Amino acid sequence: PYKSPVTDGSGHIRGNLRKATKLLRAAGYRVQKGMLTDRKGAPFTVEFLLFEASFQRIIGPYIRNLKRLGIQASIRIVDVANFKVRSDKFDYDVVIRRFVQPLTPGIEQRNYFGSANADTLGTLNAAGIKDPAIDALIEKVADAASRPDLVAATRALDRVLMWNRYSLPQWYKGVHNIAFWNKFGRPKTKPKFGLGVVETWWFDSKKAAMIAAGKAPTP
Questions:
Q1: pLDDT in tens, 26-45
Q2: pTM summary value
Q3: Same domain, yes or no, for 86 and 135?
Q4: Which of 150, 170, 190 is the last residue before a domain boundary?
């Protein structure tokens, strides 16, 4: 099974950089005057397309490591309209996308990873994936007759997508940070996924009265 590279989180990844160097050399790349070049002497360049400057802090460490390999990596920040036009037309080396997956994957996977959408302008298939094996796995996900079958098919699809390295996971946040007045009641058993603010919270008049009186109610 596919396993992502593991580090200690310190940012020091010399071991992985050495592995990357070996792979690049095996592919015919060489470092000349501090730049990674192909067999014809052309430099290895890559540009990250962004529409908000705040993402530079997410990509920055990755770009620094690319430069340590001799890769000429850069960031281009454009306005939202320009980003939309360029991303719709596949006019980028690397683009930042957020994938929001449902708890029960299904036919929407065709839009993300299916061959039929690989060349469609504005497609969600940002990597332009065209792979019959992936198409077949998507259909297994869509046609799963039971939860165990769905889980097995989805995990198989995930392994193939990760193994082919169509995307680079950047960051993950397992919580939602929200600020609110403590004048609401909440059930003891909370939703496993989601906040449930609108669906399960209710106005607590006693807590509201305490706030009005300048007292802090208990959570």
A1: 999 999 999 999 999 999 99
A2: 0.79
A3: no
A4: 170
